[in-house]
Amino acid sequence: MVDLKKDVWAIADTLRGVYARNEAGDVILPMTILRRLECVMAPQRAQVAEIVAKQPNETLRVKMIKSVTGGVKFYNTTNHTLASVYDSGNDMVENLLEYVRGFSDDIDVFTNFDLPRHVDRMKKGGILTTIVRQFRDLDLSPEAVPNSKMGELFEHLIYMDFESSNAESGDHYTPRDAINLLVDLLFAEDDSGLSGEAIRSIYDPTVGTGGMLSVAEEHLHRMNPDAELLLYGQELRSESYALCRSDMLAKGQNPQNIVLGNTLTKDKFPDQRFNYILSNPPYGVDWKNDADIVEQEHKKGFGGRFGAGLPPTSDGALLFVQHAIAKMNPADSEDGGARAGIVLNGSPLFSGGAGSGSSAIRGWLLENDLVEAIVALPNDMFYNTGIATYLWIFDNAKRPERMGKVQLVDATALGVKMRKSVGSKRVEIGEVARERVLHQYANMECSDTSKILDNLDFAFWQITVERPLRLNFETTPERVALVAENKALGNIDGLINALKSFNGGHYLNREDFLNDLGKHLGSCSISLTSAQRKALWQTLGERDESADKCHFQTGKNKGEPEPDIPLRDIETVPFGWDGNPKSHDAKDATIKAYFSKEVKPHFDDAWVDHTKTKVGYEIPFTRHFYKYVPPRTLSEIDADLDLSLQEILGLLHKVEESK
Q1: How many CB atoms lie within 10 A of CB 31?
Q2: Strand 228-235 versus strand 405-410 pairing type
Q3: DSSP type of residue 561
Q4: In contact, 321 and 361? CB cutoff 8 Å
């Protein structure tokens, strides 16, 4: 397979001079598809031609062809092949275009790649004959290149094309080792789908070239040859869509189930739900341009797809997660619910504080018991990024032993270094590592690399701890000078002179100070607004722990201590803290116990502003697997320093000897 990948992309050398390097994919991708379709059609080409000639009705024609070919749903109305086109001499261009136009309507890939224009360009550049011969000589038959290997080839070509264009290939190319592990985990808990003549549907909302769908189909067929898997996908990019659609056709799948469009703005399968969902949405995708449509759907609540909340517009990962959950077969359906597997970076685990859209979405997932497991993959697993990545497994009909639980599996140490890196991909998950993860998952293992936690272990209350404002006051020259510099106060006639003549002394109580100062200013015929009065005491006051508490003078909080904003502290109180029940109902008791034990002993005058308390959710994955490594002892450090010093002295001695 490695040689085939090289052989196909090596054809780019023939294109040099006529095409720039970043244009090679415009030819190689559609010509590879053409050759693959030709090889798939080859065994029954004569029978298909006879059916096409005799049956004018398109629906009946496809049905008859499918029965003859064992599932192939496309055909070509001509007698051409790449071999015959190559042998046609001066008629090569006309025959090749006639061949391409002769495919059934479901084959729209050549339109998406504008192949006729490239045929003319290659003819004018004098390379068409060579290109046709090179693709004619490739053996892309299903016997030589099974569907999964063909999917790998398509994805390799996509990767090479985008790499040569300096574009982001990660949107299209998920490494097969990651897909294999995700698919294994997805099917691991579905006994009903792995027995009898089961019919299962699987959907990828960011389908790319269809790699995940292909692996899932082959996996299920290995486990249950009698099962039927219906594949669905939506893709944003036309080139990837065309490749995926062609691949589905070659495998006998319904090409109408692969659609083109933006998943976030328009769900092309609005009335359908699926048994399985697989996806690797682009990392950190910006959805600012889609914000109007997404926000309108959010306003529908759970009548739309984004009812749980909206993440920041800089990262749409949790929008894709909500979309996937919305497409899951209901738990009370005949098929018994659905499972989803999504590849995500670290952001959805913890981004956004309590009360944010991201936190609300995590809370919705956890409170509804949808998250079954999260597996941390090794770094450097993907082709366009070396950042941490995670496999999320969702299930809306968990087994009894998994209800209310989330399993975290740390597979970061299981990667095997590749002999040759590809882009940013330097490690891979081999079969042994995959079996290890599956064993931990299936057995709900509790170990250093596998944790079983309650859903509400990831919930917390964010509380606001206040301390009272304490100020002393006096009208010293330094403080009066600050009043003079204050734009809101410095221009008030007579104020500065009045302050200089005020001899109230040093105050530790704000109410007493304002009362005495107010009388003095009144005697000086100076009247202040409420805003000016506030600006004045803020300017003349200085923090003093020995001063009396300041209290609100007006409003609903009149008479209560006024908080000192710079001393405000935000604390996180986990659900179940210190043995309290993990429950929303235990909120008041848990916060009170936390405050009494963790805050009150240090700040006796502090209090909790309960109006600001928020519930939050985050999954601090690395914290659950943290291992303390004690620092080196002083003797070890001294020994290293002595060794380094001896080496330096030895080098200096050699320098002296060489003089």
Answers
A1: 24
A2: unpaired
A3: B
A4: yes
Helix (H) or strand (E) holding 316: none
* Phi/psi at 383 (5° precision): -80, -25
Q: What is the spatial distance between Cα 227 and Cα 30, in angstroms, rounded to a whole number?
A: 32
In 3D space, the residue among 198, 326, 282, 242 whose CA is nearest the CA of residue 31 turns out to be 242
| Residue 65: Cβ within 10 Å count | 22
For residue 602, pLDDT over 80 is answered with yes
Q: Which whole-number Å values give the CA distances from 182 to 339, 401, 429, 620, in the listed order? A: 11, 21, 11, 21
Number of H helices, E strands in the chain: 26, 17
What single-letter amino acid sits at 615? V
Distance in angstroms (rounded) separating the CA atoms of residues 216 and 211 = 9
Note the pLDDT of residue 172. 45
Write out the H or E segment, with its range, that includes residue 634: helix 634-658
- Axis crossing angle, helix 147-164 with helix 211-223, rounded to the nearest 10: 160
Residue 203 contacts residue 314 (beta carbons within 8 Å): no
Spatial contact of 205 and 327, defined as CB atoms under 8 Å apart: yes
Beta bridge partners of 373: 393, 407
Question: Which among 322, 308, 236, 233 has a CA at the least distance from the CA of 278?
Answer: 233
Over the stretch 563-593, which tens digit does the pLDDT of each residue have?
999 999 999 999 999 999 999 999 999 999 9
CA–CA gap between residue 548 and residue 559 (Å, rounded): 13
| Structure-token pair, residue 247 | 């691949």
